[in-house]
């Protein structure tokens, strides 16, 4: 039997109202604690968003600072070398010495040679280790008043090309055996330097003979070696503050330690700073001076010395001349073992009685001992001239004392030559 109450609208309404009432009263049961959570989560999200925005802003600031710093770093790294290179290209043309030109000594290698004056004998001036012909700028015009005199830059120094590795292919030669005869000699050693000088004077420019060879430091070794190999071309040899092959054996090798432990690394550092363009900045700001420091030299020489000091190629050759010095010493020793020095060629040694103030006394004493051995043992019949108050800078601080002995030899040869002709 079906009850009608179930279909009573009033019952349905009550049930609806009861259900609705339960829904309304639901928050009072404790289940409504979940409703405040969305508000707290929103605060957390706002806080997190705020912190995220701050982090993003910090990241952007860091990135912009980093980019700006990198720009400056790149500017410092790239700009000085670029400006130095462009300056070297411009200066290379207008700072070139007015006297002289480049001569091809063979195989495409060109060397600078500058000559003044006329007549015989021809005086050849050879610079100290790692230096250019500018050191003779005060000596050259004075000697030129009485005879022909020439200066030159050794391979790689100043305006001369670095020595080339030369190869020639002839019919029947194997691919692995194409070395030119000239490559038998190591670059920047005595034998190669002598060969370069002989080609420059006798083949490329054909300078009149005989020669009076005037060499300072390494230039003195070249003068002695040249005379050993080409004695018929040389009348006199003048050694100014000469570098001697037994230098490294003096006083427990103090010079060897200094040469390879300090001198070469300092030139390598100069080469690096020149390549980076920092040497030019140092010269401009006065933190560095050019090597020929004398008020007597011309402004042109000063500018040219600054130019070569900023040139990585020049400094690379300076490093190489010092680096291969043991080979050079060995070669000059071998020459003296194979053949005595020609008796018909006179030798004059010019030294000063002042030590180099920039060097420790131990190095100055060892240098003096090696020169004493040169005078007493290697060339016992030589003439020794001591310049009072002069040190190793005598070529541009006491140049007159160097010029006078050379001119006496010139006049002596001229007088003898005229008497012989009569």
List the defining traits of the structure above:
eight-stranded mixed β-sheet; disordered N terminus; 13 helices; alpha/beta; 52% helix; 422 residues; Rossmann fold
Q: Overview of this structure, please?
A:
With 422 residues, the chain is α/β, with parallel strands linked by helices. The protein has one domain: Alpha/Beta hydrolase fold, catalytic domain (Rossmann fold). It is 52% helix and 11% strand. It has 13 helices and eight strands. The protein has an eight-stranded mixed sheet with strand order 1-2-4-3-5-6-7-8, sandwiched between helices. β1 and β2 form a beta hairpin. α4 packs across α5, α5 runs parallel beside α10 and α6 packs antiparallel against α9. The protein is globular. The N and C termini lie far apart (173 Å). The N terminus is likely disordered.
